[in-house]
Amino acid sequence: MTASTDNPSSDSPDSPDSGSLDSGSTSSDRTRPASTSPDSPSTERLSPLHAIHVAGGASFTDFAGWQMPVSYGSDLAEHHAVRTAAGLFDLSHMGEIFVVGPEAAQALDYALAGKLSAIAVGQAKYSLLLTVDGGIVDDLVVYRTGDDRFLVVANASNRVDVARELIERSADFACEVYDESDDIALIAIQGPRAHEILSQAPTVEIPGLDDLKYYWCRPGTFGDRGEHELLVARTGYTGEDGFELYLSPDAAAQLWEALMETGAGSGLVAAGLASRDTLRLEAGMPLYGHELGTTTFPVQAGLGRVVALKKEGDFVGRQAIEAGPPADARVLVGLASEGKRAGRADYLLFAGTESGTDTEAPNPIGVITSGALSPTLGHPIAMAYVEKAHSEPGSPIFIDVRGKRIPAHVVSLPFYKRESR
Amino acid sequence: MADKTELKYTAAHEWILVDGTTATVGITDYAADKLGDVVFVELPEVGSTVASGTVVGEIESTKSVGELFAPVDGTVLEANEAVVDSPELVNSDPFGEGWLIKVTFETLPELLSFDEYAALVAE
User: Fold this and answer.
1) Where does the record place the Lipoyl-binding domain (chain B) (predicted)?
2) Pairs of residues, one from chain A and one from chain B, whose beta carbons lie less than 8 Å apart
3) For the whole model, what pTM was predicted?
4) Residues of chain B neighbouring A2 (CB-CB closer than 8 A)
5) Yes or no: is domain A1-91+184-289 CATH 3.30.1360.120?
6) Residues on chain A touching B34 (C-beta within 8 angstroms)
């Protein structure tokens, strides 16, 4: 048999990555094995948790130049664990870039799509770094860790571009840009029991953890003498409650093992990038390189609200965003279908009627950007760009699944939303 | 479960158990691991004619699509309905209950031995 992985994995806290689980292989790649390149790494970058992953039986993939865990045996079991209990993710490949100085907030207002000067110390905001033409260089989470201090978290594959752009765009402001990615590890604990486990972990001290709101962060410490600093954020990329913990690579293994031990009785499992991808897809979260790219306007991806057009002053991309995308620009939708056969990235979409494929319209009206059989819902789901005329919920659409037309229909995003508690 | 050392293999990561003129075909544990959790299997119809090297079925995981190739020219004698109903058998028992099809054949093409396949996977 041959295999090809076309569903890449996710990467960032609430923001994704263009790397593919299966670097170098596409759905048209028919040489085998294509799914991963586990044992003979072409890349040398290893997470500080690599030895733990090896001991835990992980299979690895080349991801944006890093060897990262795809799964620890069963991606489905890891997915379900995050939905019902908790999962622990190593995201140490993510880019962490600091912007520091008296005009750091103004610099980010100019460099990014959002109004970062409006967020309070301790608050986080999902934002975009736009091209001059209004496309998306990367999607980011920005944390304000001080009056004049911001942490910008970028996708691993875009880290260099984001750092370079931030340096260039902040040149006229009183601030400095530091790419600290190599000196920061990132562990995410996600799932309905994440809070309980984190609050019980020995030597983890996070004052005010119980009151930490979604998209806020605060400092903590870890270690017998409180010797390791933590930045604890209530953010994630799974559609569940959860936390992301930034810390020194030297302390990452110790924290990972402490959390695994604490959570063992609560159903916590180590979770890899494969489950992260299906989790974020169900949650309707875009993945850079799939739903987002330099030729995509935010409004096409449903991210118009992320662009703060009302903020004062210029920002990179403003003129293009105000002009808007072409009238015939496709828009991002959710697709749902029956059966088990999933449409996947790059599969073409065709207009349909209730009785079948619309033979009057033989040209594709869209393309899938991410798709899988939803582990939680039990039926195939996909995100896709389609012509506006076919974007209303309920619109019938046919997916060309390797030559067979599978009926689907447009649904609103997200596919899955956790019950608020 | 078949003795892995007694089986024949293809470079497409399938195993073949030869019994007279019947070949039982499955995918190797290596292939199953690489695919991840298998969630959908489509197999050829019993009685259909298959040609060596052509695609006769599909094995989908959450993240990948794998193709099943016929390793021999022949006629499909049996398709494993248990795997269609429970695709996870491909992961849990790839050399046993996770077998996929049985094909009757007249001539057996050249296939890899266990050692040859092990060397291929080790590359």
Assistant:
1) 22-104
2) 99
3) 0.89
4) 12, 66-67, 69
5) yes
6) 3, 33-36, 38, 59
